[in-house]
Structures
1.
Amino acid sequence: IIVHRALRLASRGIGAALIPVSHAFHSPLMARTAEPILEQLRSEPIHAPCRRIMSTITGSELTASDDIRNLLRRQVTSPVLFQDALESAGTVDLWIEVGPGRVLSGFARDITSAPAISVESGSMSHRSFFEAVAAAWDLGVSVRINKLFEGRFSRPFRARRRFFANPCELAP
């Protein structure tokens, strides 16, 4: 059914992408999970945003008066207005996808001119997270490096520091 609909859309000049997912997220088929999610959210402290957050339910920026719990409940059963949210954000220096995989950061790269990177939450590796931190730092964001390594075992480096020159940089 989904492939048939995607082909019908394509014949009308409307793009569609099949996304490999484990469940029918963001559709009415998830309706029975919405109330248990809302019940759990009622026990969680949720505050008004202190930074800009774009909602993919409304396609616009969240405000202090938005019912975030209800928006999160609706997130489970509602279509995703991803492109609307990206476009309503205006100028952005870097998009960082927080979640499993890289699908949304790929879409963001296709839709906007800003770089997009995923932290791949839940991955066994922290590489993509550190790549996102490095990308933000490269754009001038102040990074508190001590927080990244807080509580981890480390030893001070006491040897004489020597750096190797990249032979490619020595070529005339």
Note: The CA atoms of residues 34 and 73 lie 5 Å apart.
2.
Amino acid sequence: YGIFKLQKVTGPTNPYKGSYQYTQSDYHFELLRSAENLSDARVEIKAPEKSTGKLYYQRYHSDEPWGAVNLQYSNGVLFGYIPKQPAAGKVEYYLVINLPNRLVRVPEAQNVVMRFKGHVPAWLLVPHIILMVVSILLVIKSNSALKSHPSSIISLSWCWTLMSLIFLIKS
């Protein structure tokens, strides 16, 4: 269970979480780090009334100039859109929020990297997830068997071989 929790918390597709403070209120946010490339990616952040701001973005690891989009305000949220990218395209971005008495950069120091992905059909995704879980469990079993019964590693090697063949056939 701990391995799956670690993947969920640290995986590249989970939002970047943080908060900023204004007039003794905390504004918590989750910034996207993954989006499908079917349309522009909406980036939003909670903000007080009469706030404005800009979304700055650039293709990841490029020398291109930074693009800027004015954020729009609606129902306590500032939002803007990053133009869609091809599958596996990455964009780094940050927000600058104009509050009545100061500017806030979100995140404060580094940029958020967003990965664009193509749509993956469920018939392909479900077997992939099952194989990933089974392989993790097999690694755990192999490790514990190797420590307690070194001779059982041969039968586990056959399991690994079969799993590898199944994976190669599926792909």
Note: The two ends are 27 Å apart (CA to CA).
